[in-house]
Specification:
Oligomer: single chain
Distance between the termini: 36 Å
Number of helices: 11
CATH superfamily of the largest domain: Alanine racemase
Number of strands: 17
CATH class of the largest domain: Alpha Beta
Low-confidence stretches: none
Structural class: alpha/beta
Mean pLDDT: 95
CATH topology of the largest domain: TIM Barrel
Length: 357
């Protein structure tokens, strides 16, 4: 395994074979359920993995930034959903991108956004964001105002109303499989009931979160699915039962830069700018492992900007290399301008994610 020694730490390692397996499993489930598979790219932000999500080809994708959308368009992707309620000042940029692809769906959840679209003198493909219980964004599906907004969207000459979109992000707040499956049911029911209420059966019902998508047996009750984190998974997904240890495809390579056995601590060169400050369901800021990803009796309990403080009863020499499974792979990946691609334990290449918004 030892061309890791050639890497400058901290380094973000991505196991290509595990990513491919994760992608195939989710894609196969979507195909068996006969739903549109529109995976999210926000976790990895690369053309390479977006292609792997579609079995090596091109297909519908979901993005969280227009920068991601523009990069994927350059990479040949032609059917994109920008799944963040759009800021009115970004409509011109979205319209320019829409001219370059077959379809760019945008997202709204307010009358102000509808009015901005209607004032832009452009026509857009639009999804309405619906809150299924996460309470981060989206219209309340039980509200009369939400039904009226949907009715106005159906009548608007500036909108091609494509569907209803929700995100069961509260699946990240649960601690067991039964609770995740309950959120999955909320995702589907919120959209189906709201679609029935507004009398628009042709609207697509788009759902997506990695915990729910990973654990449901099928996608019955949805028309489109948009998971993203599943390409890498992470320590948090592992802790709530969404995946197995062998499904986690990423880690951060770090070096011990200080060893203090008299106080049972180590210092590593991976801090908040390499791991984020997301806590997982367990202790610490990531799962510390050896180079073979075997967990070690250590806890990463403090992060400063460029350093991590590790508690351990073991004496570890300065210069020792360790791997850390991050709690949140999406944020951790976003800290790096390049991913070191590994296969069979060796570095075989490098992928560069898009940066910015």
């Amino acid at each position: 395994m030892d061309n890791f020694s050639q890497l400058t730490t901290p380094a973000f390692l991505v196991d290509r074979s595990i990513v491919a397996r994760n992608c195939e499993r989710m894609r196969t489930k979507a195909a068996a359920s006969q739903v549109i598979f529109r995976p999210h790219v926000k976790t990895h932000k690369t053309v390479e993995i977006a292609r792997m999500q579609h079995g090596g080809g091109i297909g519908p994708v979901t993005v969280s930034t227009l920068a991601e959308a523009e990069q994927l368009a350059e990479g040949g992707f032609t059917d994109l959903t920008y799944a963040v309620p759009i800021a009115p000042e970004k409509l011109a940029r979205a319209a320019a991108l829409a001219k370059r692809v077959e379809r760019l769906n945008i997202l709204i959840d307010s009358r102000a956004a509808l009015q901005a679209i209607e004032s832009s003198n452009k026509t857009f493909d639009v999804f309405l964001k619906v809150d299924c219980g996460y309470h981060r964004a989206g219209v309340d599906p039980s509200s009369p105002e939400s039904a009226q907004l949907a009715a106005d969207m159906l009548r608007s000459p500036s909108i091609r109303f494509r569907g209803l979109l929700t995100h069961g992000g509260h699946s990240y707040n649960v601690r067991n499989v039964d609770e995740i499956l309950a959120v999955a049911a909320q995702e589907r029911e919120a959209l189906t009931q709201f679609r029935d209420r507004i009398g628009a059966p042709s609207l697509l019902r788009s759902v997506g979160s990695t915990p729910t998508a990973s654990l449901v047996p099928d996608f019955d009750g949805a028309d489109e699915v948009r998971p993203g984190n599943y390409v890498f998974y992470d320590g948090f997904q592992l802790s709530i039962g969404t995946c197995r240890p062998e499904d986690v495809a990423c880690s951060v390579l770090t070096t011990v830069i200080g060893s203090y056995p008299e106080r049972d601590t180590l210092m590593i060169d991976a801090g908040a700018l390499a791991l984020s400050k997301d806590l997982g369901a367990g202790d610490g800021y990531g799962l510390i492992c050896d180079l073979d990803l075997k967990p070690l009796p250590m806890t990463l309990d403090t992060l400063s900007q460029e350093h991590g403080k590790v508690r351990t009863k073991h004496t570890v020499p300065v210069g020792t290399r360790l791997r850390i499974v991050p709690n949140h792979s999406c944020l951790t990946a976003a800290m790096f301008d390049a991913y070191q691609v590994i296969d069979n334990g060796r570095v075989v290449g490098e992928w560069k994610p898009v940066r910015g918004w």
